[in-house]
Amino acid sequence: MEDPPPPPPPEPEPEPAAAAAFPQRDVEPSPPPPRRRLLLRLRCAVQHYEWGRRGDASLVARLAAQDPDPARPYAELWMGTHPSGPSTLLDDGELLGDWLARNPDALGPAVAARWGGDLPFLSKVLSVAKALSIQAHPDKKLAEVLHALRPSTYKDDNHKPEMAIAITEFRALCGFASIEELKDILRTVPEVEGLVGHEDAGKLMSMKEYDGSSAVKSSLQSAFAKLMTASKDMVSEAISKLISRLNIESKIRTLTDKEQLVLSLERQYQEDVGVLAAPFFNYVKLSPGEALYIGANEPHAYLSGECIECMATSDNVVRAGLTPKYRDVQTLCSMLTYKQGFPEILRGVPVQPHVRRYTPPFDEFEVDFCLVPPGELVVISPVPSPSIFLVMTGEGELQADSQSDGEKAKEGDVFFVPAYTEVKLSTCGPESMKLYRAGVNSRSFN
After folding, report:
1. Where is each Phosphomannose isomerase type I catalytic domain found (predicted)?
2. What distance in Å separates the CA atoms of residue 349 and residue 347, rounded to the nearest whole number?
3. Out of 54, 171, 319, 357, which one is annotated catalytic?
């Protein structure tokens, strides 16, 4: 049997003298990494279109916290990254779009991948004093064509589905009326029938509700194009006759809502073919809290009231009436779907206590209405997309994730919130706080 190996030599002792000779100095701790900004206050662009409400009669002016010029229209407040009215960070003036380019994780991976590192939605507040143009927004394919052909008029290549949520009583024209209603117009408004022409009017009059959609579309498109392309002299004469007749008849009977609308539009846009076209569309009246969504290639015109509007990030508008701006009648008449029937009205669906959601059939956006009662805490769960919050009324606080210091919030404050951020909402004082949150449609992540 072999002898066991010898034990290993002992470890050498440390040399304390070295430590004594060179005493360790206090080292400043490294500064912590900068904390990610979870609530960005925004300064948002105001658009002074002529149809807007003036001075402090405009909700847009009040929200923008300006000292409004009583003679100037304040039509739209834009919250987003569109270059025609980009939002900036309130503290340093950096464009929100530039901040997102440096912080793409704020969009969430799904949004960043699908929409090219930018916000896919644009949120607005509208204060409408007089009718906007009869218009439609192109689908994606047409938007690309129009932008390539006329970039000065059609400023981007995106489509623009949109939704309007009424804050006050809100009036709009949207989509073509039913066949039976159109027949009634041709029977009772000879001034319109005369411009459409007997042949096209006759085709529509012979249509049935159950006729093939292609036949109805063809006849309606032909009749509408005839009306919209009538000469200025013919339009002027027809409007003059129509207004004179309605003024006389108003003394012996109550005018219909559409007849009263025609008189109102004529006072705003004299000798405009849109006055004669208005009866062709559905006349929609929204109460506060009701919403209307509008797809690509659908005719519409907002008439009066104030609303929250959300849409895909675009400013493409094809106009054909009720406007002093550029009209592209041929494009509008060729692009429309000519669908008929009254549009769907959304009233929002409760998704949790104090939060109601408006979900249109478009991937780019949805809107939540948040009502925060005094003394209550409303927690908005993290979502995989960024959000923009607008404080409509009241005062309170927004707190992001577990951060102890919240942000004070009052009427008109706008905040950008990155994806996957929990937001706690609370009030200050005796009044409820009302907010709107715009974000990417939750269904698009399913």
Report:
1. 39-176
2. 7
3. 319
